[in-house]
Structures are given as C-alpha cells and as structure tokens.
Amino acid sequence: MYQVKTFNAIAKSGLETFSDDFKINQSDDPDAYLIRSVNLLQEKFPESLKTIVRCGVGYNNVPLDKATEQGIAVFNTPGSNANAVKELVISLMIATARNLFAANQYSNIHSEADISQRTEKDKTKFNGTELAGKRLAVIGLGNVGSRVANAALALGMKVIGYDPFLSSNAAWRIDNQVKRANSIRRAVKNADFVTVHVPKNQDTIGLISTTELTAMKDQAVLFNYSRIGIVDNKAVLKAIQEGKISHYCTDFGEPIIADQKNITITPHIGGSTLEAESNGAVQGADTVMNYLESGDTTNSVNLPNMKVPFEAPYRVTVIHKNVPNMVGQIATKMADREINIENMSNAAKGSTAYTVVDVNSIDGENGQNLIRSLNKIPEVHRVRIIEHQ
Ligand SMILES: NC(=O)c1ccc[n+]([C@@H]2O[C@H](COP(=O)([O-])OP(=O)(O)OC[C@H]3O[C@@H](n4cnc5c(N)ncnc54)[C@H](O)[C@@H]3O)[C@@H](O)[C@H]2O)c1
Ligand SMILES: O=C(O)[C@H](O)COP(=O)(O)O
Questions:
Q1: Ligand nearest to the CA of 79
Q2: ipTM attached to this prediction
Q3: How far apart are the first and last CA of the chain?
Q4: Residue 104: enclosing H or E segment and its boundaries?
Q5: Which one of 161, 292, 307, 323 is separated from 266 by 20 to 30 angstroms, measured CA to CA?
Q6: What are phi and psi of 357, to 5 degrees?
C-alpha cells in the first residue's frame, strides 16, 4: 500500500483516480506528495518520500536540487491548465481593449435613477479598439503561449513569438502564420499587446524590465500570467505612470502595484477552472501511480524522462549522479549476487542519471542486500525494487 499526502486543493476527480493500492492521508511517512502551489522550498522531506507531483505546471515552489540529492523524482502535469490560462488572457485582452474595467466602474458610481442621459453623453470616454488587425507579441510559445498565439490569430490579430528553446511538440502546435522573432526586443517592437508565458528560473527573473518596456510600442498592454518576478513590477509601474504602457494585467499581486490606475491584478486564477483543476489532478494521480508502480519518469522535471516496458517480474531503479562507471558498478553488484539482468536502460539529464534494470528473480533478502550495497556507492541517491503488479 502506498501513502499519498496531499497539499492544496486537489480536485476530487484526481483523488478518485487512485487505485486501491494507494491511500490518501496525512501520513508522516508518505511515498508521494501531490501538490499545487504550496511552497516547499524550506521543507524537510521525510526519508520515505519518493516522488513529488505538482498538479499544474510551475514548479518553482519545489527545491529541485534538494529533491534530486534525496532521490525524489519531481513531476508536473504539462498542458493541464493551458486552455484555462489562454482563455483568461484573451478575455483580458478584450477587456483592456474595450476599457471594460473603467466602464464598469463608471456605470456603478452614479446614484441617479435614470443615468441613461448621462451615459449617452459620456460613453465616448470609453470608446475602445478591436483586437482584429492589432499586433500581439507572445514571449514563450509552450503549452500556454502557443494556444494564446493561435487564438489571437483566429481573432484576426497579427502574432509574433519569441522562444529560443521551443520543443518540437510545441512547434507542431503553432500556426504557421505566427511570425518568429530572434530576440525579445524584436518581438515586442510595434506590438500592441505583449504576453509572457515562460517558467520562472534564474534566466527569466526580470525578463521584462526597463529595456524591454522601452522597446515596446507606446500605449502597449502587458500581461504576466507566468510568475511574479519575471516582469519587473517596479519598472512596469514607472512605465504606466509615464504613460508608456497603457495597461498591465497580472495574476501575481504585490504591494508596489496595488491600487494603481491601469493595473489589473487577479489572484493567481490562471489555472483555476473546474476543467483545468480536474485535468491536473487526474494527470497528477496517474503520474504518482506510474512512477511508484513502474518507475516511469515521463514528465519528470529533475530526472531524464524514461518509459521502459516493464516485462520482467522485478525492476531495480537507481537514481544517481551522472558520472562514469555507474552502470558498470550497478551491473557488477547485481552479478555478485547472481542476479541475472534481463534488460538495462540508462539515461541522463544534466548532472543526474537514472538506471532501470529488469530482472527475473530477486528474493527478499538478496534484494535488501543489493539495496544496501548499491546505497554504499557515494554517487547513488536512491535505489528501489519494484515488483511487477
Ligand atoms: N497563472 C497561472 O495560473 C498559470 C497557469 C499555468 C502556467 N503558469 C506559468 O506559466 C508558465 C508557462 O506555462 P506553460 O504551460 O506554457 O509551460 P511550458 O513549459 O509548456 O512552456 C514554457 C515555454 O517557455 C519557453 N521559454 C523558457 N525560457 C524562455 C525564455 N528565456 N525566453 C522565451 N521563452 C522561454 C520554453 O521553451 C517553453 O516553450 C509556467 O511555467 C507557469 O509558471 C501560470
Ligand atoms: O503553474 C501553474 O500550473 C499555475 O500557476 C497554477 O497554480 P495552482 O495550481 O496553484 O492554481
């Protein structure tokens, strides 16, 4: 029986996905954490913990190096909430183009019983523009960015994208009418709307700051539905106050931008739809089960992604440093115990590697001895023996 500890609100459909071999509880010795945005950066992980699965996309709340060092596989659920973010960003583009926030405020502050005369006189103050024919720059063309780009094209916009690390899967999704820029500055130049959809990491903090804001078209509208810090809010506030940017919409509030004219803040609800939360939870539950029951690392963000058909009665998995002679040492330790290897696979991601060995037989005591002996190799982070279900 595997123990799964949940953090945040995980959709019921996901919790119901688990088979009877998984128990959802608040155990002190969980095999898995199923999380959303909970901040685990200072968390002390229990020794029992083998995997952390983030239902959703951004995993900047998980200390990847610490997890890897402790042999914990970390996963996310790519694409599970991309449509939800796309729809919110498109709705905000329309809302800003049509001055909906100011128009709503105006219409709500009059106490007259019949305000029709006044509104007919004043309504020109809220004249808007249409998205069709306008130019949108999309920074980051992954699951969210590609969908925003395609939807904007369908609304008649001209779209230019920037993503130097575009995966082939994402590239297939992008309409060929989306133009490619080779720098952020080129992408944002002449754009009426700029939206950012990149992960938060050392390279993307401050990705949009004074230089990029200066390069933007006067009166451009900017969206940050990625993470706090990717857009430099201090620089944006200045650009808003100087009239350079006409509106800024973000999912991540902080005091410096609170209660400011032409800044709209939503409370991190980009992925908060019934559909997206259910997608993430179901995908997350499947990921926990697959990893614990087969060692499958598809969608891991700290281990190489490996999906090896499990065709033998037992599987030994080893998470280790990516250094020479690890496969040799693992094979030797198995041979020392007369364990015959049926199939062996190895792959690396940066400084970490993963080795999967399928064997026909490994009795309990021999297995425990093997685990102890492999754990003595200093570069080994975690060894598991999984019995085929
Ligand atoms: N507001 C929300 O509720 C919400 C919901 C989903 C995702 N997000 C955030 O949005 C981010 C993007 O989500 P996604 O599903 O599209 O992720 P994704 O991994 O599918 O796509 C991210 C894209 O960014 C690109 N990229 C990375 N660094 C870049 C850089 N320096 N310049 C340009 N492009 C760069 C990558 O190549 C990739 O194509 C997530 O990491 C998460 O932080 C927020
Ligand atoms: O990165 C994500 O998937 C989003 O920011 C959603 O976060 P949430 O699961 O906390 O709503």
A1: 1
A2: 0.99
A3: 12
A4: helix 100-108
A5: 161
A6: -125, 120
Ligand 1 geometric centre to CA of 179 (Å): 19
Phi then psi for 170, rounded to 5 degrees?
-65, -40
Atom of ligand 2 nearest to the CA of 37: 10
Active site residue 254: yes
Starting at the edge strand found earlier in the chain, the sheet holding 341-349 runs 341-349, 352-359, 314-321, 380-387
Confidence of residue 83 (pLDDT cuts 50, 70, 90): very high
For the entire predicted model, the pTM comes to: 0.96
CA distance 46 to 66: 12
Among 197, 250, 268, say which to mutate for ligand 2: greatest number of ligand atoms within 8 Å of CB: 268
Backbone CA torsion sign across 86, 91, 96, 101: negative
DSSP per-residue codes, 285-341: HHHHHHHHHH---TTBSSS--------SSEEEEEEEES-TTHHHHHHHHHHHTTPPE
Contact between residue 165 and residue 144 where contact means Cβ atoms under 8 Å apart: no
145-180 per-position pLDDT tens digit? 999 999 999 999 999 999 999 999 899 999 999 999
Could you give all domains of the chain from N- to C-terminal order, each with its CATH number? 1-81+273-303 (3.40.50.720), 82-265 (3.40.50.720), 307-389 (3.30.70.260)
Decide whether any atom of ligand 2 lies within 6 Å of the 266 Cβ.
no
245-250, strands of its sheet edge to edge: 179-180, 158-162, 135-139, 193-196, 220-224, 245-250, 263-265
Instruction: Tell me the pairing of strands 2-6 and 263-265.
Output: unpaired
